[in-house]
Amino acid sequence: VPRAAPDSRAELLDRRLVVVTGKGGTGKSTLSAALALAASRRDKRVLVCEVTARERVSELFGRPASGPQIRELAPNLYSVHVRPPEAMREYGLMILRYQTLYNLVFENKVVRYFLTAAPSLAEIVMLGKVFWHAAREMERGRPRWDLVVLDAPATGHGLNLLTVPDVFLGIVSEGPLARDMRDMQSLLKDPARCRTCIVTLPEEMPANEAIELHRALDQHGLPQGALFLNGVFEPRFTPQERTQVARGGPLLAAAADAVESHEARADLSVRYRQLLGKEVQLPLLAVPYLFDRSFGPQAIEKVALAIEAAL
Amino acid sequence: VRRPDDRAVAPRPPLDQVLARRRVVSCVGPGGVGKTTTAAALALRAAMTGKRSLVLTIDPARRLANSLGLKALGNRETRIGEDLFRAAGLRPRGEMYAMMLDLKLTWDELVQRQAPSPERARQILENRLYQKLSTAMAGSLEYMAMEKVYELHSSGRFDVVVLDTPPTANALDFLRAPDRILDVLDNDAMRILLGPMLKASRIGLKLFALPTGLALRTLARFTGQDFLRDLAHFVVAFEGMYEGFKQRAVQVKRLLAGPETAFVLVTTPSPLSIEDALFFHRSLQADGITTAAVAVNRVQRDPHRLGGPDSAPALREALQLAQVPDGGNPPLSQRLARTLVEQATLADLDRRQVQELSRTLPGVPLYVVPRLRKDVHDLAGLWQIDEFLSAAEE
Questions:
Q1: Model confidence over A209-226: pLDDT tens digits?
Q2: Of A159, B78, B153, B389, which residue is least crowded by CB atoms under 10 Å?
Q3: Distance of CA A10 to the CA centre of its chain
Q4: Across the interface, do A156 and B59 touch by the CB < 8 Å criterion?
């Protein structure tokens, strides 16, 4: 069945915002870093926004943590760690525009208390800041960033983050924050400007979660870009070879064990590739398993090359 | 070359022995490490040894349902049927139940229980803000998981309740969730801020007093008036209920920190997972809670534990001896050599990680579950995991 994609894969990196989400431990940060690297190689100026508790992308490039300051990790490639306290301050200032007013209100003990307790406020301000970088930040008359990559939290929390404008607008319909949320909502739901990508592994639970996430994103009207199947093992031995080596006696015992370990994972790769291809109406990009001893710039380079080859 | 297997950890008793006297077992750790599977395996073990066990999962992706081969789990406990046990060749001496937490329902039940009157409960349940808050508020899931565990535990219907915790990014969220949420429900700061609105709300005015004071006016600019109005209604509806909630939260915390509860840290050998797991461990420690055990899932076994040559020329000879043609492109011997190197690399990486973890957590019994060749999605698979968790020594 031909999967007619109105959006060719090549266009994925031509959006303003690419969101990367998926089950925990599937390699969201690695894929975010690799996508950013691939885009930066196409002469795009890229910013990676990390919103999870621990910053990882800078480390993957072998650089010190960026923290709340934008730092360059590679030519044309920058990252920032968006954390609620700083995002709150920056975002509050953006909306109120005046430092004195901000201080008067936000430095007020009572208000601060209210703000830390308010629902989803962390998500709101973090998304607000990402939105600002993706849609509003200008430099010399043009957008400062060609592409913003949002390394989003895992499935459930990621979906919460992306649907926070919906939730917020269900409660609040007026005021500057509501207007901002509306703009944010339209960015996240505009297929021309934004795509959400799912990262998964060739294993049952991550694959099922990817399928559910795909459907949930669809239901929320969030346009998707690609499904990354990470850690793929390609079959390497024929069934006949497997049988022969398995029966090869003690001299081939270790080899037979290695073959079975490899092929067990290759079988899973084939199975979940088929399942995901059937259940998820998105271009599927397979990223090979990497045997690197440490996950650093070299590994990111390999993943970026794999993505480039697929794009 | 025969090398020792990769399970180099200190001697320790079987995990079910470590957990024998615990009535609540909470599996904590980062997302994607197999917490649900471990939790289900522990509940299965308890049921097999004659206990009445329940595994409570919270994950919206319904993973436990997958693990147990069930199509769906309601907010009510479902007994794992005889047929599933029989299919796995198991004969339980006890009973096993599973439940998936329904966040909204658990909140509603809590409100109904704590409200002074059905009328007040109705007011809260119908509040627009409550409806959003109960499901969307950060920490809400964690709080309700704790609440449900407490309820199930106090019901006395189960010998052990195993909790599969939500994949919280931050362990502190999980442990501090009750405090955070209770702070929202009642705090003096909010009262002062919303003062004028609360007054109006209390005397039931339809038309609201405009927000007074610069702070409130500015907040209204931020959030809009409707929100503040809903919030005021909400705060008023919750008046007088705070004490009940607070007492309940204290009881929940006492249970979790007490001797009846065990926290089992679950991780994989991936450095990122271990890092997250250690962060959990330290957060627990900071709250005065000790980690009862650590389970490391999906540890690659070293093929060299089985012996045999690993270089391409030597493998070529071994193939000849076994009368296996060295065909294909690249030839079989070369592919075998490459595969041995790769699999041994994976095993070596995992072994180092496990050893490092074991050194970092002295005195915490550590259990290694090797990477299985098939996905675990039924009781037979869970039982296989139990055998690794229950092995007396490696």
A1: 899 999 999 999 999 999
A2: B78
A3: 17
A4: yes
